[in-house]
Automatic annotation (TrEMBL):
PANTHER family: SINGLE-STRANDED-DNA-SPECIFIC EXONUCLEASE RECJ
The protein's name in its UniProt record: Single-stranded-DNA-specific exonuclease RecJ
GO biological process, one term: DNA repair
Pfam families per the UniProt record, alphabetical: DHH, DHHA1, RecJ_OB
Molecular function per GO: 5'-3' exonuclease activity; nucleic acid binding
InterPro entries assigned: DDH_dom, DHH_sf, DHHA1_dom, RecJ, RecJ_OB, SSDNA_exonuclease_RecJ
UniProt keyword Zinc-finger present: no
Record-annotated RecJ OB domain positions: 450-563
Residues in DHHA1 domain copies: 337-433
Lineage of origin: Bacteria, Pseudomonadati, Pseudomonadota, Alphaproteobacteria, Rhodobacterales
Gene3D superfamilies for this protein: 3.10.310.30, 3.90.1640.30
Every DDH domain range: 66-218
Length: 568
């Protein structure tokens, strides 16, 4: 199959093998390698309520109405909010961007904020939130505003009484666009609004320059990189490389991003820095950064986000250590891994849940309780799921059953609020619901390999070939290779818990990096970092992904390590 793909698509045999392992058929390889937005772009009108939403937004833009955008505090919400702000600016409309405070307001629209926005705006648009916000939508309408919702989270049987609810995951939706993130939905809304404006004889801006924000949100929200999402990210990376967005340009500079950007940079360099504002700082910073055209403001906000990201890392490390100890003490062989602790910062519980999920290969929930921890207060938590297990629907079921104060999300991630004295019964019930879906049956996660490569074969040309076959991410994992029996010539700690290595096979050498290795415990073993540091001068079997590193104008290849084992 790999050879057939290589011959038909005109790629190297190793790329053919990688695509075959991901289920790409020879006749599909050409379209997979070069996803065309023109070919994959749907008619936005196939989504329910899209025409009504687009026509209302078009009239508001044309007439210069007062518009507010209520967005979530994560990357997806910030990108969707910024896209609308940038598009509306073309019509001379300065939209009010409202991002709720994670601690004081929690996720999604709330009655006081929506009532206040409705009182002074003609139109309120909820992005990346709102599909379950019956009361807040009613509050904005009662105050005099129309409400539109552009979201992708799971919906209930009854929708809020907004003018339009555009959500590919509505229970009555048939368009087949469920994998889109909110920024993707918002992009389709802008395309549809442009079409409505042209019918009114109004000139419209080109939406394609907004694809850098769609790409960033798609990768950061861990949306599957297949179909339309794949085209969005491929085209968005080209827009990002042009550095036209002042905020993204400033953020790339503080993150020391050099060379052409890839999906790795979106997910691991830019995304976490934007998220830092919503996690441990001012929630509005991400949307402000991505929407501004003022270079000085962009540089100042990017610097602030960089500082907050460092603060987030320190908080995360402390909570992770406690959560790991608690989860291991409770036992992690069931369908759910969970931990809850007093004073744990709500802004990092989602990241820590991701770490637990990766560590135990099970859905994980982490809850930060009120500092008193006496069971009388409230906990705010976040969960992450494994492939094939719908966490969002199970969390929503708990909320309907009264075990949670609030909860919802999508298949792979969800948020919740729970009374302190209900944590244990809520988690027991969640474990029961997840077990019905097969959670916990997989055992330790397998490390799938696409082949073997030694230091001499790990060339820049090979890494560039593999990068061109991307983007890589959710549902399209980056190729992973074994480096068998290589000698660890040197190993040293760099940055915040990373380990940098120099590998050798006697004839050639290769640099490698193990991100967060000192905080990556393994079953029955020391952390990956301790293992690597303890094997300096010895041989080991390594597994990881080839990455390109541009430093001072020189391009080189590195091995980004995922795991290691002794070579006896």
């Amino acid at each position: 199959m790999g050879a057939a793909i290589a011959q038909r698509a005109g790629v190297t045999e190793i790329v053919g093998r990688v695509l075959a392992a991901r289920g790409v058929a020879p006749e599909e390889a050409g379209a997979y390698l070069a996803p065309s937005l023109k070919a994959l772009m749907p008619d936005p009108s196939t989504l329910r309520d899209m025409d009504a939403a687009a026509e209302r937004l078009a009239r508001a833009a044309r007439d210069g109405e007062r518009i507010a955008v209520f967005g979530d505090y994560d990357v997806d919400g910030a990108c969707a909010s910024a896209m609308l702000a940038r598009w509306l600016r073309h019509f001379g409309v300065g939209a009010t961007l409202y991002i709720p405070d994670r601690i004081d307001e929690g996720y999604g629209p709330n009655d006081p904020a929506m009532a206040a926005l409705g009182a002074v705006h003609d139109l309120v648009i909820c992005v990346d939130c709102g599909s379950l916000s019956h009361g807040p939508v009613a509050a904005a309408r009662a105050a005099g505003a129309d409400v539109l919702i552009a979201d992708h989270h799971l919906c209930g049987e009854t929708l809020p009484e907004a003018l339009a609810v555009v959500n590919p995951n509505r229970q009555d939706e048939t368009a087949g666009l469920g994998p889109l993130c909110a920024a993707g939905v918002t992009f389709l809304l802008i395309v549809a609004a442009n079409r409505a404006l042209r019918r009114l004889g109004v000139a419209t801006p080109d939406p394609l320059p907004l694809l850098d924000l769609v790409a960033l949100a798609t990768v950061a929200d861990v949306a599957p990189l297949t179909g339309l999402n794949r085209a969005f990210v491929r085209q968005g990376l080209k827009v990002l490389a042009a550095r036209g967005n002042a905020g993204l340009r400033a953020l790339a500079d503080v993150a020391r991003l050099s060379g052409p950007p890839g999906s790795f940079h979106l997910g691991y360099m830019l995304g976490p820095r934007i998220n830092a504002g919503g996690r441990v700082g001012e929630a509005w910073l991400g949307a402000r950064l991505l929407s501004t055209e003022d270079v000085r403001e962009a540089e100042a906000v990017a610097a602030r986000l960089e500082a907050l990201n460092e603060e987030r890392r320190a908080i995360e490390a402390e909570v992770l250590a406690q959560a790991l100890a608690q989860a291991e003490a409770r036992g992690a062989d069931g369908p759910l891994v969970w931990a809850a602790g007093p004073g744990w910062h709500p802004g990092v519980v989602g990241i820590v849940a991701s770490r637990l999920k990766e560590r135990f290969n099970r859905p994980a929930v982490v809850i930060g309780l009120d500092a008193a921890g006496d069971g009388k207060g409230e906990g705010k938590g976040s969960g992450r799921s494994t492939q094939g297990v719908d966490l969002g629907s199970s969390i929503a079921a708990l909320a309907r059953e009264g075990l949670l104060l609030k909860g919802g999300g999508h298949r792979m991630a969800a948020g919740l609020s729970v009374a302190g004295d209900m944590v244990e019964p809520a988690m027991a019930r969640l474990a029961e619901l997840l077990a019905r879906q097969g959670a916990g049956r997989e055992g330790p996660s397998d490390l799938r390999l696409d082949g073997a490569v030694g230091p001499g074969a790990a060339t820049v040309a090979l890494a560039e070939t593999l990068e061109q076959a991307g983007p890589w991410g959710a549902s399209a994992p980056a190729p992973r290779f074994a480096a068998p029996a290589v000698r660890i010539a040197s190993a040293r700690i760099v940055g915040a818990g990373h380990v940098a290595l120099r590998l050798s096979d006697g004839a050639a050498s290769l640099d490698a990096i193990a991100f967060g290795a000192l905080d990556a415990p393994r079953p029955g073993a020391d952390s990956l970092g301790d293992f690597l540091l303890g094997r300096a001068g010895e041989r080991a079997h390594l597994a990881g992904r080839l990455m390109l590193d541009d430093w001072k104008g020189r391009r080189r290849v590195k091995l980004q390590l995922d795991d290691a084992a002794p070579a006896f």
